[in-house]
Amino acid sequence: MWANQLLSSPSVIWQASTDAVLGGQAGAVLSGAWRLMLLGDGSPTRHFQLLTGDPVEIELISMAPETSAGASAGGPPPAEISELESPLLRRQVWLRCGERTLAWAESWWNQQQADAYLLERDQPIWRSLTARRAELFREVDGLARVDAPWLAERFGHGGPFWSRHYRFFRGGKELTVIREVFSPELEHWLGPAGLAPGSTQPQGLGLQAGLLQ
């Protein structure tokens, strides 16, 4: 059995337009490593394991019915969840490697699809979905800066934090929408997230929102 107390979604401080994300223009001041992490179509759990050398552990926060797709607690949900068939389930997890918490994630599912694909609730979603070597397509739809006190407390860093959301498709049909928030702890391996405007010199996460598109 799992907990049913959902955390409030983080507040969105800034977000790129969907067109900018899909066209590859969003986050132009991100360093190359961070652009690949945030806008690439690879598995972050696989990346975390490769970077740290430790297996990714999932700490399940909650998996509970979503009463309304447009009324998630806290910040606004990704618009793409309107394409999922109701009733919906929302799942929230922490992603850890060893003692380090590297990300927080929430995902939205049709309840029947969740029952079919999330057989092991404490496993990374990518591992569950690819257990049968079925073909999947990932489309990154959003890039944002978000903040929440509970994120800063768990990450041990002040916000705002980089976030993205994407969809998994199977057979051309939307399977789930996932939002991930990344800890600045990743700078230990990836280096500073941003490049100063007009410069090749990296800088930290404190970028002005207006410079990020």
Largest sheet: 7 strands, antiparallel
Could you name the CATH homologous superfamily? Answer: Chorismate lyase-like
Number of E-type strands:
9
Gross CATH architecture: 3-Layer(aba) Sandwich
Question: How would you write the strand order of the largest sheet?
Answer: 1-5-6-7-4-3-2
Termini separation comes to 42 Å
Structural class: alpha+beta
Provide the gyration radius in Å: 16 Å
* Shape, principal axes of CA atoms: globular
The H-and-E topology, N to C, reads as EHHHEEEHHEHEEHEE
Q: Briefly, what CATH class? A: Alpha Beta
Give the fraction of residues assigned to helices. Answer: 10-25%
Q: Which regions have little confidence, pLDDT < 50, spanning 5+ residues? A: 196-213
Number of helices: 7
Look at the structure and give the mean pLDDT.
80
CATH topology: Chorismate lyase
Strand content: 25-35%
Counting structural domains, the number is: 1
Question: What does this molecule look like?
Answer:
This protein is 21% helix and 34% strand. By secondary structure, it is of the alpha+beta class. The chain has a single domain, classed as Chorismate lyase-like (Chorismate lyase, 3-Layer(aba) Sandwich), CATH 3.40.1410.10. Strands 1-5-6-7-4-3-2 form a seven-stranded antiparallel beta sheet. Strands 8-9 form a two-stranded antiparallel ribbon. Strand 8 and strand 9 form a beta hairpin. The longest helix is centred in the first third of the chain and has 9 residues, at 44-52. Mean pLDDT is 80; it is low at 196-213.
